[in-house]
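name: query_chain
kind: protein
chains: 1
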Amino acid sequence: MTSMNAHADQLVSVTSLAPIFKASGDPMRLEILRVLRRDTFGVLELSQLFDMRQSGMSHHLKVLHKAGLLEPQREGNAIFYRRPLHLDSDKLTDQIIRQIFETVDQIALPESLQERINAIRTQRADQSQAFFARHAEQFREQQELIASFELYAEPVAQLLRQRATKQNWQTALEIGPGEGAFLHVLSGLASHVVALDNSKDMLAKATRTCIDERLHNVDLIEGVTDTLLGRGDNFDLVVANMVLHHVPSPADIFLDAAALMNSEGCLVISELCSHDQDWAKQNCGDLWLGFEPEELTAWAADAGLAAGEQLFIGLRNGFQIQVREFWKASTLA
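structure:
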């Protein structure tokens, strides 16, 4: 009887593996899995990337989804696709899926495909930048439709001050400082602070904040993280408050932050948890409706960062904010 049960279990395992190998046995589907390594794309964007009719792309996505190789992510009325967040290391099918991902990730994307990906990211960035250009004067009011500044700024500041008792932060970077309301915190923690924003209008407001509060150790730079990477800058601390849902490729923030961080550097992020309130895109210029905590953890791990402290703040309007800490060193501070 025991041998019969063992044989039945083996048949179940083999049967469950077949859809995975069938779905991954198509070159186009492997290409789709490659571009979803860190990005999340909708069916129209994927059709644009691969110059394919939407019906054909939808078929490929359906097969990959059914095999467990990707999962849909609802962003309001739109559906995007990503690699699965939860893969069980003890489950045979998940082990195979992880091996497929690791294998295709070793193959570099063709330059032409990378250019199309960059074009989509540029479209997203332009959309976000245009929103802030239109609503620069109402920035605080727009943001506080979701959460007032103090609700996430105070916990982040408290965490940083706690860490500062053991850390000697000489240089700090804030990505997307907005009006510069958090810069006084960083100015008091580090000898030199850089504030980086791609919006000229928001930088003008942050400059006024620095003047009014006499923050003489803050440099404001117009650009993106590539700007600082090209200059060869390095930082002990990187902070991004409520920024990820405005950037075209959130996973790249982790990669760039890690590249900009000194050894044993720290990255602190405050961000919305995943939600379904689609009005935030129109009213607040959000590109993404928050993120699952596992997404941030996976992106950080992919960038060589180890997760540290985490705090979740529930808001009365149904939103939830996550405050996350990541370290470049293998041993947490």
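note: The domain at 2-109 is CATH 1.10.10.10 (Arc Repressor Mutant, subunit A).
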